[in-house]
Amino acid sequence: MNVEVSRRHFIKLTGAGVAVTAVGAFGFADAEQALAQSIRPFKLAKLTETRNTCPYCSVGCGVIMYSQGDIKTGEKAEIKHIEGDPDHPTNKGTLCPKGAALLDFVRSETRTLHPLVREPGTNAWTQLTWDQALDRIARLMKDDRDANFIAKNKDGVTVNRWISTGMLAASATTNETAFMTYKAVRSAGMVVFDNQARV
Amino acid sequence: MTETSGSNQGLLNIGEQAKPPVAVLPAPSALFKSRAVRLAALAPGHDLEPYLRFLARLTEAQHAAAAALPAANGPLETVTRNDVPPLADARDTCSDEARAAITSVLDHLGEADLPEAAVSAIRSLRAAPAGVIEALALRVLRADPAADEGEDTVAPDVAQLALVAAGLQVHFSRLAAKLDVGSLDSVAGNACPACGSAPVASAIVSWPRASNTRFCACSLCGTMWHVVRVKCVLCSSTAGITYHAIEGKPDTVKAECCEACHAYVKVVNQTQDPALEPLADDVATLGLDMLMREAGWKRGGRNPFLLGY
Predict the structure, then answer these.
(1) Interchain pair A25, B307: CB under 8 A
(2) For residues B233 and B263, what is the distance between their CA atoms, to the nearest angstrom?
(3) Do B190 and A1 touch (CB under 8 A)?
(4) Could you tell me if residue B206 is inside a domain?
């Protein structure tokens, strides 16, 4: 698609020709000069608008997140506002009350930022690394599956079910992610499984 | 859910579904009047006050011309065919009606209390033979790089070009008003579905059933057409879109910058301030263009009253 910037504009922008502007040509060069002087001390502020999907439920509403600063260029960025994406085919700019409160969700002081564990018999949450957390989950799942896996039912028919552990997977995922999650979890025999957060 | 209205200061219209039309055609009886009112309202205390007052007067003249001209013949073509907007052919010639519109704007503008440069542009345009006016008009209408290249040994008078463009805006808004909006198809982000011209700027509108959607405003006929937000209207890229505003000033008018084509087109946010008018506020935020130029960005919006930027 062509970029509609005329060559004449471009030549003037690059300083190759003497810049004649409409403002000057009508005899208002003084005002133009005054504006150029008064604007000189000001700086440009960079803002971004980013499309994303609401993380709450399986409807997958589109949102636009407004932030100040550009994180891609190493600036510190802060989200100022979140609203429904009017161009998104699912929600056409609308949001449910939970989606409308997304900004508070992003900024919440009680938001979980890293893996935490509460050991059995204690009431304190302790922080651990992702590796530790995943190792621990894998270990506990393996132990539980080894202890409670049902290979055959009472009639001797092979059923291969594992009903003592359940899994609640993410909601704002793609079809492909949901498919992979389903295959991984069901192949372990897990029956108690839901792939959308209807909460 | 019932529709709600009001500003979004802390409250969102979360139940309002946006179903934006492809385009909204101009109403010549209101287009120029509301623009003139906005220009006059922007003027007091502005660095460009005399220029904004002059443009308010020129826009009033456009309004008067639009009302005074005899009923326009309908355009020959009225539907989008093969991605060609219906008024594209009309941009290849300067008809008698177009010339009459240019003359009518000059008649209503008058000469009293105008700067010498403006008066001399008006007089030489009045005295110019039809062929010269036609050449100026075609320059405005075609606005393609090739046309600019060959003839640039004699640079046209920028003030005359802007005056001719003012007349053509009247003519084309009257042509566009006769189209049936249902027969228009979107052509491209940077081309008006009625006449194919480039946008002045775009506006995030607060219209019922289209709230918060973005429409580009045509620099020639005044038609507004829907373009998805956070997307470059010039090259349709969606990667690397950022917005620049002047630090410490209201960010109701922002420059939508595209890293793919390194150009920007302004966006005026009417949900924040319903009084914003794309063309008028484009001129009034010339300071932003000055800062953007210094930062190395190309201006992508076309505004006949900011020629040279």
Answers:
(1) yes
(2) 10
(3) yes
(4) yes
